[in-house]
Design brief:
By secondary structure, the protein is mainly α. 60% of the residues lie in helices and 0% in strands. The protein is built from six helices and no strands.
């Protein structure tokens, strides 16, 4: 299934679609106040679900392009969004998301299925023909 993200356009569109709820949930107060672990709300659950999907998309694309660390870029954006002291710097998370999209699209795929199997993270994912 992760082979679907070999298409650059699908990666970019799915990342942006999953990123849109994080922008709108920022206006719901989750980003300004940080994620309160003692008060789980619907907006915080939706935010966490969209970030989990973004992490999955970046992990799949990172395995395909040989850059498994691509998943760390949205993680930094997540930390900047939900740490109350860092929310004072407003545009850093969105710049990190943009960087993840650019790197995911600009980097070429690893040629050949045998080379992609050399990655330790790629071995955990099933390869279907």
């Amino acid at each position: 299934m992760y082979k679907a993200f070999a298409n650059k356009n699908l990666f970019m569109i799915s990342y942006i679609i999953c990123l849109l709820p994080t922008y709108f949930l920022g206006y719901a107060g989750i980003v300004e106040n940080g994620l309160a672990l003692n008060a789980i709300t619907i907006s915080s659950i939706l935010y966490m679900l969209s970030m989990a999907v973004i992490w999955g998309i970046c992990f799949a694309r990172g395995v395909l392009i040989g850059k498994e660390w691509l998943v760390l870029i949205p993680t930094v954006a997540f930390i900047f969004n939900l740490t109350p002291a860092l929310t004072a710097i407003p545009f850093v998370p969105y710049e990190y998301h943009l960087l993840a999209i650019i790197l995911g699209v600009a980097c070429p795929l690893i040629s050949g299925q045998d080379e992609s199997r050399n990655s330790p993270l790629a071995e955990t994912l099933p390869i279907t023909s």
